[in-house]
Amino acid sequence: MNFVEELRWRGMLHQMMPGTEELLSREQVTAYVGIDPTADSLHIGHLCSVMMLRHFQRAGHKPLALVGGATGMIGDPSGKSAERNLLTEETLRHNVACIKRQLGRFLDFDSQAPNAAELVNNYDWMKGYSFLDFAREVGKHITVNYMMAKDSVKRRLNGEASDGLSFTEFTYQLLQGYDFLHLYRTKGCKLQMGGSDQWGNITTGTELIRRTLGAEAEAFALTCPLITKADGRKFGKTEQGNVWLDRERTTPYKFYQFWLNVGDEEAERYIKIFTSLSREEIETLVAEHQKDPGRRILQKRLGEEVTCMVHGRADYEAAVEASGILFGKATKESLLKLDEATLLSVFEGVPRFEVGRDSVVGVKAVDLLAGTTQCFASKGEMRKLTQGGGVSINKEKFAAFDREITAEDLIDGKYLLVQRGKKNYFLLIVK
To answer: Is 38 tagged catalytic?
Structure first.
């Protein structure tokens, strides 16, 4: 597999230094991508860079995932309009451990193959480096003029909404450049990859290697485009925020739903970028989708591939089953399988009523649903719909509108799902 050609047809190649393709064609190359551990989970905005490492390893090369335990203490000004809060060492250590577990789903860290992936943390080589030593050994090689010319610096200095650029952030590109130099010396790493907003930082690294070790030292840069939605908005953001890989932050159901709900144009782009499906498989799927877009073949396959890769097949199948609860002919058994987080995710947009236990248990359904709550406009409406088979409690037809609600009716002891007709749901939360 030709790595560069693979990126090209997938739409994952933005910029590349001259000579990079030739290097990759003549030897097994070690390359790294840096990940800032500002949270204890990756989100799907990280996925393009992570998938680059995945394709890189599949092409026979050796990937390094660098988690920035040191640079994470500083903050990268690239693409930012303001300086962010600095994290403690303890928080960073926790975040690094969590991110390593997630990366294990994409990269092979455990095999004995010569191109097994490695995780490195720049805190390991920066923690004992004094400021004076860094200034003498690194700072002297890169001029302020060179650093000021970087777009990421100019945008912050010239931006109307900016408060300027602190010295802390200004040094970030030197720290990232030193990472590349250190990995070049210790791991034989000749290539750094990342998002297009990292081009300035990456090329500072190639320049530092050349100026420190001489013109014969070969170091290269390659970036992927920043992925956006069809309307130009930042990829991976929803009204609720980022879509995370950690199930505690974003349930597998919501994760699957994100991919299922992308538009046709986005699905065609994303299935190339975020899956390992072959070109032939994807072209076949695109052709099938175009014949009948209403079946959403691309979105369903995209959701399957990415959810299985991030969470595993069991969580994917559970997410598909949960999706059928709102829109399909699900049963009470399907409903009871849901964990609490998924239940709340599935019914996120559904009207909710919080009621005390005394107002539910031992109370007639008609008094609860047409009195205490407004699931039905009147008791007469509920009586009529119940007699016509149009009312369900917890996905089971409700036969007697005046039956008392019991503790056994409550899901997890505190939820009651009411369905009026085919499409109207209400979730009662018992306090």
So the answer is: yes
Does 80 participate in catalysis according to the annotation?
Answer: yes
Q: Catalytic annotation on 423?
A: no
d(CA 290, CA 124): 51
Give CA separation, 133 vs 76, 126, 137, 380, in Å. 22, 11, 6, 82
Amino acid at 328: G
Contacts 24+ apart (CB under 8 A), 387-395: 390/420, 390/421, 391/418, 391/419, 391/420, 392/418, 392/419, 393/365, 393/417, 393/418, 393/419, 394/332, 394/335, 394/336, 395/325, 395/330, 395/331, 395/332, 395/334, 395/335, 395/419
DSSP-derived secondary structure letter, 88 = P
The one catalytic residue among 55, 105, 237, 384: 237
Q: Is the pLDDT of residue 304 over 50?
A: yes
Question: Is the sign of the CA dihedral 221, 222, 227, 231 positive or negative?
Answer: positive
- Position 83 scores a pLDDT of 46
Q: Catalytic one among 20, 171, 176, 203?
A: 176
Question: Is position 237 annotated as part of the catalytic site?
Answer: yes
* Residue 55 among the catalytic residues: no
Confidence of residue 133 (pLDDT cuts 50, 70, 90): very high
Whether the CB-CB separation of 356 and 430 falls below 8 Å is answered with yes
d(CA 205, CA 178): 7
Helix (H, G, I), strand (E, B) or coil at 261: coil
Q: Is the pTM of this model over 0.90?
A: no
Catalytic site residue 84?
yes
- Judged on CB neighbours under 10 Å (0-12, 13-18, 19+), 103 is buried
Active site residue 234: yes
Residue corresponding to tokens 């485009």:
225
